[in-house]
Amino acid sequence: MRDGQDKVKITYHRDVKEVQSDAALAHLLSDACQRAPFDRLAWWEGLVRDCGMEPVIAVAQDGDAAAVLALREDGVGALAALSNWYTFRFRPIASDACLLTPLARDLARRARRVTLSGVPDEDGTATAVEHAFRAAGWVVRREPCDLNHYLAVGGRDYESYLASRPGKLRTTLKRKSGKVETQVLTAFDESAWAAYESIYAESWKPEEGSPAFLRAFAQGEGAAGRLRLGVASAQGEAIAAQMWTVEGGSAFIHKLAYREAAKPLSPGSVLTAALMRHVIDVDHVAEVDFGTGDDPYKRDWMESERPRFRLTMLRPWHPANWAELAKIAVKARLAASANRR
After folding, report:
1. pTM score, two decimals?
2. What is the pLDDT of residue 331?
3. CATH number reported for the structural domain that contains residue 68 in this entry
4. What are the backbone dihedrals phi and psi of residue 185, each rounded to the nearest 5 degrees, phi first?
5. 40-46, long-range: CB within 8 Å, 24+ apart, which pairs?
6. Number of structural domains found in the chain
7. Do 8 and 136 sit in the same domain of this protein?
């Protein structure tokens, strides 16, 4: 613990429960204030508990204002975002973004390198973090690292949305929907989850990174009324399953899988259509977020994309950073030379 400039207090927590014990921080990181799962303390707790991460939760506080940067150990002298493949996007959580600069300044005592991946900028987050670390004396490299496909519903009902989809997709849905039964559950169900795990095991997907994390997350979201668990069946057998959540006017598509043997029935497409109908016509979401990855099939369902950025912050006077800093300098000179031509 250390007091930063003026009245700003900087603390670091290796136990997520320490953050929870602070009433103001617990409120800032709760359902009451945050409208996406990745921004809440419960998400970080799951990453630590089920994904083996070593947290370093950096906090700057000035009276009632706070800024929180959830980090993890990433090698000697290095920190990275407390996130993994389940995290759509990463951002600091702040009631006052001005506190990011004293937080960045104090972090220079603890790390030579900080890497944040999956940072959005449609809300100005990447720019704010970049400016804060530069102001604190760090060298910052910013680069695109991923794409997020999403749909702005724009007040449409499902049928209007469907009419705008590619003809090939609409034809597939028309031909296959009668052969596949679908259901959308809004609470966690043991038998449906068992079906999901069985389907995933027989899908084209790689081995699940942390089944325990995903199950705990689904149970928590179900208890909160945010879970949308879809199951598609044919002839009494579950052949496709998807896990979505809904909150704050957005639907998040977390997981989807179908049995490889059932591919001719297009169960994944039929089930996605059923869930789209539900979140648009029943939940009345304003946006559907298909997570990260530039998979071609996402363009069939989504209409827009936005970048996710990687921010690499380096302490300029640390010897272990000099080789990378030299590369950054050369690249910058080459880019400036090219722009002058």
Report:
1. 0.93
2. 80
3. 3.40.630
4. -95, 140
5. 41/16, 42/220, 43/87, 43/217, 44/16, 44/70, 44/82, 45/16, 46/213, 46/216, 46/217
6. 2
7. yes
User: Domain range holding 10?
Assistant: 2-147+306-340
Same domain assignment for residues 134 and 161: no
Question: Which runs of consecutive H residues, i.e. helices, occur in 164-258?
Answer: 167-176, 190-201, 211-223
225's torsion region: left (phi>0), alpha (psi -120 to 50) or beta? left
pLDDT in tens, 71-105: 999 999 999 999 999 999 999 999 999 999 999 99
- Residues lower than pLDDT 70 in the chain: 1-6, 341
Which parts of 129-249 are beta strand (E)?
139-152, 181-185, 227-234, 237-247
Please give the biggest Cα pair distance in the chain. 68
pLDDT 10s digits, 248-287 = 999 999 999 999 999 999 999 999 999 999 999 999 999 9
Cα–Cα dist 83/51, whole Å: 10
Looking at the structure, tell me whether residues 165 and 89 fall in a common domain.
no
**Pair 100, 208 in one domain:** no
